[in-house]
Design a protein that fits this description.
Elements (H helix, E strand, L loop, with lengths): L2 E5 L3 H19 L4 H24 L6 H4 L3 H12 L11 H23 L9 H32 L3 H7 L1 E5 L19
Helix pairs in contact: 1-2, 2-5, 5-6
The protein binds protoporphyrin IX containing FE (HEM) (2 copies).
The site of one protoporphyrin IX containing FE has 21 residues, from α1, α2, α5 and α6.
């Protein structure tokens, strides 16, 4: 079968992802070490806000319009997954798109509530620190599901999604990708 390397994740998305992983891990590992914890959290907030902008102006597969699918498409993908025959997508698959949105939203809530808990207005307010702790635990659970999802999708699609997030390229069979007129030319069709 003709297999071709296709550029999928741009430099911003790749750097965003791995710097985010380092910062979130530091925030979780250093909850009692105030200054590094808060600095990592503020950096997460800035990164996620930048990612939201990149989701509108960024390269093809970085855009929300590329990977936010309707509930019906998500269900369809999950049915295929359960049957062991998920459709292939060059960018995030429909279930991955939901996960990306959920992760970004929770990251905003966790970092935002942490920030609020340090402001004059909300310092010492119980619901704000409560929200921070609960949302951080939810985020941790979601990260576990995210990593499991990446591993399962990698196995079922027989492609290494982790190395794709490092190199930016995917080596995928051209005829096996849903939603792509010509996977080999995906880079050239950068218009929406
Ligand atoms: C702190 C932990 C993590 C967070 C907050 C996180 C968050 C995210 C986010 C927001 C995206 C979407 C990327 C984008 O479009 O900008 C993503 C994608 C991805 N992440 Fe993570 N991630 C974490 C840990 C990991 C780890 C440990 C791995 C590797 C095992 C990993 C592998 C991936 C891969 C492969 C994708 C692309 C999935 C696809 O091909 O659709 N992530 N992650
Ligand atoms: C991704 C970013 C962040 C993560 C994952 C995170 C995670 C956590 C976790 C797990 C705890 C322990 C909660 C508990 O069980 O008591 C904590 C506590 C705390 N965090 Fe964060 N945090 C983040 C961002 C921030 C930011 C931006 C600030 C402030 C500028 C902040 C301020 C605090 C403070 C003051 C505490 C201790 C008191 C409390 O529970 O409210 N955090 N954080």
């Amino acid at each position: 079968m003709d297999r071709q390397g296709v550029a999928v994740w741009d430099r911003f998305v790749r750097s965003f992802h791995w710097v985010l992983v380092l910062l979130v891990a530091s925030a979780f590992l250093l909850p009692d070490w105030r200054i590094p914890h808060e600095a990592a959290g503020y950096a997460v907030l800035a990164l996620v806000l930048a990612r939201l902008v990149w989701g509108v102006v960024g390269s093809r597969h970085a855009r929300f319009a590329d990977f936010l699918a309707s509930p019906a498409t998500v269900l369809d993908y999950l049915r295929g997954l359960a049957a062991g025959r998920p459709r292939r997508y060059l960018g995030h698959n429909p279930a991955g798109g939901v996960m990306v949105l959920a992760l970004l939203a929770l990251l905003l809530i966790v970092a935002g509530s942490g920030w609020l808990s340090e402001t004059d207005r909300f310092f010492g307010v119980e619901w704000v620190s409560g929200l921070h702790a609960v949302a951080a635990n939810l985020l941790l659970a979601l990260i576990v599901v995210h990593v499991l999802g990446v591993l399962v999708a990698s196995l079922l699609h027989r492609e290494n999604l982790i190395s794709a997030m490092i190199t930016g390229r995917k080596s995928v069979a051209e005829d096996a990708i849903a939603g792509e007129a010509d996977a080999g030319e995906a880079e050239m069709h950068s218009a929406p």
